[in-house]
Amino acid sequence: MNAAPFVRVTLELLIAAAPSKPSAKPVQYIGIQLVIIPEFLGIGI
Questions:
Q1: Is 28 part of a structural domain of the chain?
Q2: How many domains does the chain have?
Q3: Does residue 30 surpass a pLDDT of 50?
C-alpha cells in the first residue's frame, strides 16, 4: 500500500509528541499511545 496522504503530518505529530505533557489540560499521568494496526494504514482517506 502506498503511503496515505496524511503520513507526513502524522509522523511530524508523533515526533513532536511530548510524553511529559500528554494533554492540553494538566493530568496525573505521562506518556503517549500509538496503536499500529496494519489494516488501518489508510484510515481517513
A1: yes
A2: 1
A3: yes
Q: Report the pLDDT value the prediction gives residue 10, as an integer from 0 to 100.
A: 81
45 closest CA partner among 12, 1, 15, 11? 1
Does 1 reside within a domain?
no
Query: Looking at the predicted structure, is the pLDDT value of residue 34 above 70?
Result: yes
pLDDT of residue 45 exceeding 50, the answer is no
Q: Could you list the residue range(s) of the whole structural domain that residue 23 is in?
A: 7-40
User: Could you give the CA distance from residue 22 to residue 30 in angstroms, rounded to a whole number?
Assistant: 6
Alpha-helical regions (H) of 1-45: 7-16
Please give the Cα distance from 14 to 35 (Å, whole number): 12
